[in-house]
């Protein structure tokens, strides 16, 4: 009973500390889910999902942009608290605690002309040249792309509009892209074929000095969110 009481007090202190501090969320460039907008602010569907999770400001969320390698180091030292991970593999799960529920899902697919044959699976790109945004690294999906040997068929462009121009000019049949609802939902002469949907979880470094309290906080918020 005495030990349980001590653990309860320690847990209460940890949550009290967390409630008073800002949660530092690390993100990198993964448009349309996470990126820095023209106003130099964190933006994207993933950023909005995190804001919604912490909408009651208890604790408030603070966004920190950095490179992947630098961000991982700061997560381990406790300078950053949270990060989102697409379909975490075994190595990620070895180094990070993963939330019980996904925060949201990412969708990957191809845009094509209406007259171009539709695709049902990403493996169909194996023998097809395609265009993609140079900024799209397809984190969490790269293994699948490598397995299907599609990287040698990829041509990079700088903008969504340039990719559509190549499609509409018949230079290439498919534009491999994340699903940008603001763009894919307004296509007129083109069609978006969804090929892959993958869960995005919140991760906390196992080296973080306050890891246990953070994991409990995140899981509680995700559980509460799912019931509303």
Number of domains: 2
Helix content: 25-40%
Major sheet characteristics: 7 strands, mixed
Give me the Rg, rounded: 20 Å
Which class of secondary structure composition applies to the elements?
Answer: alpha/beta
User: What is the CATH topology descriptor of the largest domain?
Assistant: D-Maltodextrin-Binding Protein, domain 2
Task: Please write the CATH class name of the largest domain.
Answer: Alpha Beta
Silhouette: elongated
Please report the total strand number as a whole number: 11
What share of residues are in beta strands?
A: 25-35%
Mean pLDDT: 84
CATH superfamily of the largest domain: Periplasmic binding protein-like II
Note poorly predicted spans: 1-14
Secondary structure elements and pairings:
Layout: H1 2-20, E1 23-27, E2 35-36, E3 42-43, H2 45-53, E4 61-65, H3 68-77, E5 83-86, H4 90-95, E6 96-98, E7 104-113, E8 130-133, H5 142-147, E9 154-157, H6 160-168, E10 174-178, H7 181-184, E11 190-205, H8 211-226
Parallel strand pairs: 1-4, 8-9, 8-10
Antiparallel strand pairs: 2-3, 5-11, 6-11, 7-10, 7-11
Describe this structure in words.
This protein has 228 residues and is an alpha/beta fold. The chain folds into two domains: 2-103 and 200-226, D-Maltodextrin-Binding Protein, domain 2, CATH 3.40.190; 106-198, Periplasmic binding protein-like II (D-Maltodextrin-Binding Protein, domain 2), CATH 3.40.190. It is built from eight helices and eleven strands. The protein has helices at residues 2-20, 45-53, 68-77, 90-95, 142-147, 160-168, 181-184, 211-226, and strands at 23-27, 35-36, 42-43, 61-65, 83-86, 96-98, 104-113, 130-133, 154-157, 174-178, 190-205. The strands form three sheets. Strands 5, 6, 7, 8, 9, 10 and 11 form a seven-stranded mixed beta sheet that branches. The longest helix is centred in the N-terminal third of the chain and has 19 residues, at 2-20. It is elongated and about 55 Å long. 27% of the residues are buried.
């Amino acid at each position: 009973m005495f030990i349980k009481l001590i653990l309860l007090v320690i847990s209460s202190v940890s949550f009290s500390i967390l409630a008073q501090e800002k949660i530092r969320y690390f993100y990198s460039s993964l448009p349309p889910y996470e990126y820095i907008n023209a106003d130099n602010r964190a933006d994207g569907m993933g950023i909005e999902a995190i804001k919604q999770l912490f909408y009651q400001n208890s604790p408030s969320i603070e966004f920190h942009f950095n490179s992947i390698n630098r961000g991982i180091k700061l997560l381990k030292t406790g300078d950053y608290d949270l990060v989102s991970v697409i379909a975490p593999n075994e190595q990620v799960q070895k180094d990070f605690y993963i939330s019980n529920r996904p925060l949201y899902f990412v969708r990957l697919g191809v845009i094509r002309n209406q007259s171009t044959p539709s695709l049902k699976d990403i493996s169909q790109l194996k023998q097809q040249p395609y265009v993609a945004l140079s900024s799209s690294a397809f984190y969490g999906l790269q293994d699948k792309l490598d397995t299907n040997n599609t990287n040698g068929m990829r041509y990079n462009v700088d903008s969504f509009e340039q990719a559509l121009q190549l499609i509409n000019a018949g230079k290439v049949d498919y534009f491999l892209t994340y699903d940008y609802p603001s763009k894919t939902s307004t296509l007129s002469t083109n069609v978006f074929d969804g090929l892959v949907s993958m869960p995005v979880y919140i991760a906390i470094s196992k080296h973080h000095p306050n890891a246990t309290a953070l994991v409990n906080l995140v899981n509680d918020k995700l559980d509460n969110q799912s019931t509303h």
